[in-house]
Amino acid sequence: MTSSPDKYCVIGNPIAHSKSPDIHRQFALQVSHAISYEKQLIDLNMFQQDVLALIKEGVCGANVTVPFKQDAWQLAEIKSKTAMVAGAVNTLSFKNGSVYGDNTDGVGLVRDLTINHQQPLLNKRILVLGAGGAVRGVLQDLINEKPLEIVVANRTLSKAQQLADLFNGEVTVEACNFEHIVGEFDLIINGTSASLNNELPPIPKSVISSATVSYDMMYSDQETVFNRWAKDNGAAKCIDGLGMLIEQAAESFWIWRSVRPDTSSIIQQLRSNL
Ligand code: ATR
């Protein structure tokens, strides 16, 4: 008798657009693991009940997307250190009767930058735009790479200041408004949701030197407005968030399956399907 495949899913609202099932099914195929991976639309007011129902159905793990990453953090009884500081969980594991929470977004970003694009972060000056959940979720992993400093710039200064207060320590993390950003940066990461509306955070072009790398945590079939702006103003290299999406998924897969899939072929494939 063959046992049924281990069940996983991605939960969010909306969820129809999610590429996670494609990505995880390809990971599973690559490493010959028998799993199922589905999309699950979760009612906006029923997060806890719906997740408990999934656990009852025998689901082993779930990726969590907008708007439930903080609800998942609340639900997780045992959290990794990264998830703890991020205040958000994007990977839930259900095992031994407990709910485990992790956050793989920061690892995804750092692996995409340092491995896929060979951009080491050691001693670099990093400008991070935005101070919402997406940025909070990646700051600790950026700090772990020991950059020279991180400046968090945001439209609402108080939110950037909160993050600077929380993360300043082994690496200097400072906060400012967009109009008060000073100097050039080695790496500029756009973690605002402005790109979703084709908008650009109003930052001075003096932040870009001929060696600057821009990274937009968003991706699309076309160059994002932020990366186009960076390129037009002389940035050396512009990267979008497709690699981060696949790397954060690979880290989740590793947490669940104890094997790390090769991401390069899947990044290429997804890029050509955009
Ligand atoms: P996410 O989970 O994607 O981080 P969020 O927590 O709502 O979403 O945060 C969105 C971020 O994008 C915030 O930093 C927001 O700035 P405010 O804190 O001032 O609201 C930023 N943002 C959204 N639209 C923007 C725009 N048009 N220009 C600049 N920043 C923008």
Q: What is the CATH C-level name of the largest domain?
A: Alpha Beta
The assembly state of the depicted protein chains is single chain
Write down the CATH topology of the largest domain.
Answer: Rossmann fold
Tally the beta strands.
12
Total helical elements: 10
The structural class is alpha/beta
Question: Span between N and C termini?
Answer: 40 Å
How would the global form be characterised? globular
Number of domains: 2
Strand order of the largest sheet: 2-1-3-5-6-4
Which sheet architecture does the biggest sheet show?
Answer: 6 strands, mixed
The CATH superfamily of the largest domain appears as NAD(P)-binding Rossmann-like Domain
Beta-strand percentage range = 15-25%
Helix content: 25-40%
Heteromolecules bound = 2'-monophosphoadenosine-5'-diphosphate
Please identify, by name, the CATH architecture of the largest domain.
Answer: 3-Layer(aba) Sandwich
Low-confidence stretches: none
Task: Give me the Rg, rounded.
Answer: 19 Å
Key attributes of the depicted protein:
alpha/beta, Rossmann fold, 2 domains, six-stranded parallel beta sheet, 12 strands, 38% helix, binds 2'-monophosphoadenosine-5'-diphosphate
